[in-house]
User: Which sequence fits this backbone?
């Protein structure tokens, strides 16, 4: 047995075990929260209601289901991402569960990485449930060709990346702010992030070099959520509904952007959390 | 690790290894709207805790006990000074494999069962199955929570939370355990259970450092104590040594004293009370004691007892730190 007193030196191989333990516990905390179920239930109701709405669009039922279904996934997914992201670290500090945890052989960065992985897994499971909801609705509707189901996947994947970014933003705020303020900040950046392209346009139009420079800097620094929703100035959800093809290279580029940005945000969260005093 | 002299044995001073070394530890908190006003919560604390001791850390609310423990657990960063546990700086993560900590008024994930919580904590220590499962079961037995192992912690009483808190603090078989107010808020039975756990840890050679303001527990358990007041160390040493520093008196109990003798005795002592037909006399000097005893015995009174009265820790506490109450707002 390796856990006797004194004999336990620092073993690097325990790092993944600790991070996974924290991630697993985060996931468990989320799935035992009833509010999460309410959000998923609402999303599923929305997806199901697309059957009724589809009746109004002669011959375009499956398009309506995909359009409304994926929009529901995106909206409720974002709500869930913000909801679980803002409270998770804050709750640990507020309820002081973090005291006993950080007195264990756990680096503060491991705590943040573990929390984030737990959040990502929670989002993945939620997204999977909602996507299965859309697929079952399409199946119930009938007459959908198999290729349509496959076309859902890249869109759901891009939604997932945007949710990962949203929850990383929320995680950063939750390391130093209350849930209400964190939600506000995250939502604020999420909204700005969807109109990011306007900033660049503004930078080229403005006559002041300084303002132009500031607008351009903001364009590069702020998260660009439209990357995940718009391809070739076309909304990806509508693209999927109309069976338009997606370029694998572009998806790869967006993946790299998402990973880099999420990594940067997690690094900021670690930096803030590592310097904290737990009064 | 430094050596610390902890008392005198037959062969001179007893020298033991210091498990916790605190040197000039100081912590300022910044308060005010702009966080520009420093308030000193802990001031230049120096302390050594020898191996195997049950060490009591005493002081009124706001004296800096919890701040010290949080500094030792690296939950707070010191403004100046240093602290070492088991020879390693408190910032060391690997050192925390060898210690246990129970925070003040602990709160654990209330959506977990004791089984799940301890399994989670065990994994953080790198304990793997099947050893982990065995360890969790034996710990739950030890703290008397075997029956409640599948009950979510939200349904736990305060005493049960405290017990699971102790279990998570000792899951790694630590060499030193830090307990922050482990008895506060517990009923007498709960306090006794915690006391028993501390005694059993001591029997296993574990060093226990605990803060408390429940003095009978401290008197019953501690080899040495430190008393903190307004963030400063007031006294440190064996309980006996600290209490001996203070004023002493004698209490003499007499029976079968005639009324006229009682009046005479009253003039000889500092205080006299009658309880159950017996006279309880208090005398502060040895001369008074001699006079009282001589008079009483010459007049056929029966001597029940004559004992030096040492102040209890409670008396000392009130006398020394009672005026430190204004420090309560500092934490």
Assistant:
């Amino acid at each position: 047995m390796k856990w006797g007193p004194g004999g336990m030196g620092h073993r690097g191989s325990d790092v993944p075990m600790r991070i996974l333990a924290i991630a697993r516990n985060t996931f468990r905390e989320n799935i035992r929260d009833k509010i999460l179920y309410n959000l998923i239930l609402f999303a599923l109701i929305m997806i199901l209601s697309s059957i009724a709405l589809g009746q109004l669009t002669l011959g375009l039922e499956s398009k309506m289901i995909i359009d409304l279904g994926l929009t529901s996934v995106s909206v409720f997914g974002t709500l869930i991402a913000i909801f679980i992201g803002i409270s998770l670290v804050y709750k640990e500090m507020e309820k002081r569960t973090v005291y006993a945890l950080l007195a264990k052989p756990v680096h503060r960065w491991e705590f943040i990485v573990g929390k984030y992985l737990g959040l990502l897994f929670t989002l993945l499971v939620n997204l999977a449930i909602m996507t299965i909801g859309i697929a079952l609705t399409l199946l119930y509707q009938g007459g959908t060709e198999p290729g349509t189901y496959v076309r859902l996947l890249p869109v759901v994947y891009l939604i997932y990346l945007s949710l990962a970014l949203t929850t990383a933003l929320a995680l950063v705020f939750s390391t130093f702010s209350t849930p209400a303020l964190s939600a506000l900040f995250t939502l604020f950046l999420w909204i700005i992030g969807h109109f990011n392209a306007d900033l660049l346009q503004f930078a080229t139009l403005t006559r002041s070099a300084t303002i132009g420079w500031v607008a351009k800097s903001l364009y590069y620094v702020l998260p660009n959520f439209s990357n995940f929703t718009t391809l070739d100035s076309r909304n990806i959800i509508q693209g999927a509904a109309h069976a338009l093809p997606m370029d694998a290279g572009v998806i790869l580029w967006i993946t790299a952007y998402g990973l880099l940005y999420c990594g940067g945000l997690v690094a900021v969260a670690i930096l803030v959390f590592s310097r904290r005093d737990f009064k | 690790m430094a050596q610390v002299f902890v008392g005198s044995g037959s062969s001179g001073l007893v020298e033991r290894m210091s498990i916790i070394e605190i040197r000039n530890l100081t912590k300022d908190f910044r308060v005010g709207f702009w966080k520009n006003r420093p308030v000193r919560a802990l001031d230049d604390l120096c302390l050594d805790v020898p191996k195997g001791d049950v060490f009591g850390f005493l002081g009124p609310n706001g004296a800096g006990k919890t701040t010290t423990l949080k500094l030792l657990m690296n939950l707070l960063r010191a403004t100046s000074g240093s602290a070492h546990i088991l020879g390693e700086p408190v910032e060391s993560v690997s050192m925390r494999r060898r210690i246990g900590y129970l925070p003040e008024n602990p709160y654990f994930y209330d959506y977990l069962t004791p089984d799940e919580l301890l399994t989670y904590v065990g994994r953080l220590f790198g304990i793997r199955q099947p050893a982990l499962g065995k360890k969790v079961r034996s710990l739950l037995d030890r703290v008397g929570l075997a029956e409640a192992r599948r009950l979510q912690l939200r349904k736990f009483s305060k005493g049960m939370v405290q017990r699971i808190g102790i279990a998570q603090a000792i899951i790694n078989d630590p060499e030193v355990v830090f307990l922050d107010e482990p008895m506060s808020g517990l009923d007498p039975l709960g306090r006794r259970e915690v006391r028993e756990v501390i005694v059993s840890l001591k029997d296993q050679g574990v060093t226990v450092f605990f803060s408390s303001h429940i003095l009978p527990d401290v008197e019953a358990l501690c080899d040495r104590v430190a008393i903190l007041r307004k963030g400063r160390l007031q006294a440190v040493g064996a309980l006996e040594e600290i209490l001996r520093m203070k004023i002493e008196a004698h209490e003499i109990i007499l029976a079968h004293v005639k009324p006229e003798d009682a009046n005479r005795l009253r003039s000889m002592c500092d205080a006299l009370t009658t309880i159950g037909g017996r006279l309880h006399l208090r005398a502060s000097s040895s001369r008074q004691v001699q006079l009282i005893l001589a008079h009483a015995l010459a007049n056929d009174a029966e001597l029940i007892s004559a004992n030096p009265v040492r102040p209890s820790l409670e008396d000392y506490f009130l006398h020394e730190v009672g005026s430190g109450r204004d420090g309560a707002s500092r934490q």
